[in-house]
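Exam prep: given the inputs below (a chain plus magnesium ion), describe the expected output before reading on.
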Amino acid sequence: MTIRIGNGYDIHRLVAERPLILGGVKIPHELGLLGHSDADALTHAIMDAMLGALSLGDIGHYFPPTDPKWAGADSLVLLSQVQTLVKANGFRVGNIDSVIVAERPKLKPHISAMRSRLADVLELKPDQIGIKATTNEKLGPVGREEGIAAYAVVLLFGD
Ligand code: MG
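Solution:
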């Protein structure tokens, strides 16, 4: 059996009049994330970790922000395409661990919904997906609520 590890990072700017979507879950907040797609930073970090584990490049290569096709895209649809690519390469996800860094809102009440949504797309059990939330202790751009960042690591098993 082959095992591969990947890591991913993403950050999106917080602005007015955009929805806040993380891990495929819409979270009530007065600000949302700006981006070409739905700007789901957690899902993007996970996708990059999955691609990175197989040295397949990054999500910008597969879903370029210059391509109008991905405007407003549901990141779970993009995640499902990355999952298809991982499977086509003979691998499957063993587990994912991730951290969302956000000053506000409180994300804890939404984490189990995020795990369920991501697990559905990735054909995993929710206990294979770790999602933690932390603040940046008011430090830097994330601490000033200018954006929300996410980090992910993924372990893939191959045949
Ligand atoms: Mg992104």
